[in-house]
Amino acid sequence: MYKRCLLLVSAAFLLTSCSEPGAPAQNTQLSEQIAEMTQTIKELREENTRLQEQITRLQESVNDEETRTNLRETLNMTFKLMAAMESEDTAYIESVSSPNVEIATSRNALVVQHGDSSYEANFIKSILWDEFEFRGYNQKDSDHFMLFIARTMTTKGSEGTIEYEFSFIRSPEGEWLFDGYIS
Questions:
Q1: Would strands 176-182 and 117-122 be described as parallel, antiparallel, or unpaired?
Q2: pTM of the prediction?
């Protein structure tokens, strides 16, 4: 092992001492080129990092814009649905409902089917718009959106709060469809 190391060190010494007369200048030029390439690589990496951060910010703003659009569309639809329930406009309710929602016109109610179970939700009536407030939303994924609305009643003798959870699903055409509500 010792002999091998000694042999390698001797070979390296001989090779470096047997260089041409212009070799130091070439080595200097090569070192400068390597330094320039290293600097260029460093600058390109910094540029790449900056561009990746910019792409991330743009994607976030697109996602934020999509969420705002989804919130606006479903919130508008919620208020239109509540107005349609108040006026018993079943044609509108049917036009924006998913296949999971059926209207029981004789009872002024919605029958919402989810899997093997179903529930009935009465039309929202006696609406005083100033009693409603937005409580939040949850976008489970790009095809499912939920809105949370509360009705705070302050009329003496019937004070209280009713909370509503409106569900929406996206149709194959990309439109939001009402998928029921619970209170």
A1: unpaired
A2: 0.63
**Inter-residue contact 167 to 144 (CB < 8 Å):** yes
Q: Is residue 123 exposed (0-12), middle (13-18) or buried (19+ Cβ within 10 Å)?
A: buried
- As beta bridge partners, residue 90 has none
Tens-place pLDDT, residues 15-65: 555 555 555 667 788 888 888 888 888 887 887 777 677 666 656 654 688
Number of other CB atoms surrounding residue 10 within 10 Å: 10
Contacts 24+ apart (CB under 8 A), 165-172: 166/74, 166/78, 166/81, 168/74, 168/77, 168/144, 169/98, 169/143, 169/144, 169/145, 170/142, 170/143, 170/144, 170/145, 171/98
What are the CA-CA distances from residue 165 to residues 54, 147, 179 (Å)? Answer: 37, 6, 11
Which helix (H) or strand (E) covers residue 122, if one does? strand 117-122
Both tokens of 2, joined, read: 């010792």
Instruction: Please give the full DSSP string across 28-73, using - where no structure is assigned.
Output: HHHHHHHHHHHHHHHHHHHHHHHHHHHHHHHHHHHHHHHHHHHHHH
CB atoms within 10 A of CB 79: 13
